[in-house]
Amino acid sequence: MINIPQRILLGPGPSDTPARVLEALGRPTIGHLDPVFLQLMDEIRAKLKEVFRTSNEMTMAMSGTGSAGMETVFANLVEPGDEVLVGVNGVFGGRMADVAGRCGAVVEKLEAPWGTVFDQGEVIKAIERVKPKIVAIVHAETSTGAHQPVDRIGEAARANAALFLLDCVTSLGGAPVEIDKWGVDAAYSGTQKCLSCPPGLSPVTFSARAMERLAARKQKVQSWYLDLSMIKNYWGQERAYHHTAPINMLYGLHEALTIVLEEGLENRFNRHRAMAAMLKEGLAKLGISYASQEGHSLPMLNAVTVPDGVDEAGVRRRLLDDYGIEIGAGLGVFKGKVWRIGLMGYSSSRRNVALVLAALREILGK
Amino acid sequence: MINIPQRILLGPGPSDTPARVLEALGRPTIGHLDPVFLQLMDEIRAKLKEVFRTSNEMTMAMSGTGSAGMETVFANLVEPGDEVLVGVNGVFGGRMADVAGRCGAVVEKLEAPWGTVFDQGEVIKAIERVKPKIVAIVHAETSTGAHQPVDRIGEAARANAALFLLDCVTSLGGAPVEIDKWGVDAAYSGTQKCLSCPPGLSPVTFSARAMERLAARKQKVQSWYLDLSMIKNYWGQERAYHHTAPINMLYGLHEALTIVLEEGLENRFNRHRAMAAMLKEGLAKLGISYASQEGHSLPMLNAVTVPDGVDEAGVRRRLLDDYGIEIGAGLGVFKGKVWRIGLMGYSSSRRNVALVLAALREILGK
């Protein structure tokens, strides 16, 4: 049997999986058309609607990781030649632009420095100028720790006949995500962040407007695997076979969502905020400051600047080897300059904050 | 906690997951760049090479089900306008044609009646006539139970500058798959058939010729999620982050492959053949015959004709309700006319054959 160490996952995801979810994963496999499994799928949809705060009928989990969710929204909603406005202020905005382009979009990038957020007024002006078919924004930029305000964008998108797509991979279940209130037309997330289920599934939700756009397509969706016009008939009442669903992963997601809703979304958001504040205070005492814009830092992903003269990779290695703690390295322009300390879902606890601060204090010799 | 019944899975997949694999799935989640996980990935690659009987460096598991593996081979190897010859004699050949078309291929279908196999001479003639960039064949057509001989196609493909793609979703681990000996350039499988790991991953392998075709592309691969030109840098020594791998599912695949290799491929193939023969003999006594061509029936998927006057769905329902046994319904033109009895991987046992025969005897009143 494989020998897997017990880590404490305080990186950019995966977060620690609670024992209840690990146990659910190990339940016996049943068929993807078994009545018991179909019931489980219905329950997952209902729970995801609560977590996304939406009444969207088309809410479910795609059979791939968060990046498959990203590709799902663009592959289904972009037709070749469509203008797509993408906010790029980190790795995942850049990835959205790449994915949209591969789907045939004419991509217009709105750019901002890494670590900062967009002023919503600027985004709205860009929508009015570009008149895109789609505007796509990252809510929680995992590469920079920036928390993007998005409550005014949906209205402007609607007024300009654009769909509003939101990347909620890192925010869902850890900070408010208000699909209906914000007028989001399509959103995707991952299971391995604030939902604390292992990676492998991507919760998605699509508004009625988005589904109308899909129904009006002139061309087939370029991805068969991610084609919602077929997948909706499996998750819906038709139960038409499309592909074999990842059965055991969906057991895990069901249990993870149950845990999220038992705690309650507001309690969960408060916990994430409180733990981030505790971490920030402790890091300040070690002389470590944030790489993300003041007042716009994510509670579940703390991107902090590596102090001058400190061996960035060496500290991460000592955390892993001596304490079994994983934190994340910087990506892209933040490579070698930033650590990413995740406090996501089950990993966001007083115990873990105290531990990582104590370990850093010892390693940095403070 | 979710309440999952203990089924006996004798359908077209998933097959029963052995306890060791279920236990592996429930090991603690670790990071996708953790040195322990990277070591596990290397071991998975080595084991998959043995199971595929290949020395292909580019052998690994895609983060999606078997259909994602199908899309991977076409999305990476087809460029718009490429001629692709696809053998269609069931659902999965039809799916390949659909997927190839969505990737921009000009698809030429070679068709044969459901349940039959192609004569290899006919396939070779079609290759010489069409001169396609790619010829794609299903090795084990799960919708019809037909076992396609493919040992002569690779040579003809090579002689005509075509790549040879093979769907091994249902055959891998249950019947000989000889990637190198047969000259296969790209193949994909699923985990939930004869490997007896839950669904969610797709083992794939690509020859050096196929990787050269990929490297020579003029356009980006249309799918970011499945783009091997990036994914190879994560599974390879660079360990460059692409997407977050489905960690716990890969624990399961590692254990499932260990079990396959402990038994030994030849022993495994012999077991599948012997159990299929036992089932066939027992079904004959119940007056049930095969829907697949004589001499070309798959040992792991038995497509059999529903006897006249028998309630097709009613029998399946009684098997599930009274015995906890799942068998599969017919798809497409076989809908309502055929049962698909799978004896895949761990499910292929003397115990299960005896049980399903006894249950059918009772239900059919024989």
Which strand order does the major sheet of chain A show? 2-10-9-8-5-3-4
| Rg of chain A (CA only) | 20 Å
Text of the CATH class of the largest domain in chain A: Alpha Beta
CATH superfamily of the largest domain in chain A: Type I PLP-dependent aspartate aminotransferase-like (Major domain)
How many helices of chain A?
12
Helix content of chain A: 40-55%
Q: Low-confidence parts of chain A lasting 5 or more residues at pLDDT below 50?
A: none
Biggest chain contact: A-B, 70 and 71 residues
Structural class of chain A: alpha/beta
Element-level helix/strand string of chain A = EHHEHEHEHEEEHEEEHHHHEHEEEH
The major pleated sheet of chain A works out as: 7 strands, mixed
Shape of chain A: globular
Our estimate of the beta-strand percent of chain A is 15-25%
The counted number of beta strands of chain A is 14
User: Mind telling me which CATH architecture of the largest domain in chain A this is?
Assistant: 3-Layer(aba) Sandwich
Q: Give the total of domains of chain A.
A: 2
* Assembly annotation: homodimer
CATH topology-level fold name of the largest domain in chain A: Aspartate Aminotransferase, domain 2
**Rounded average pLDDT of chain A:** 97
How far from one another are the termini of chain A?
Answer: 41 Å
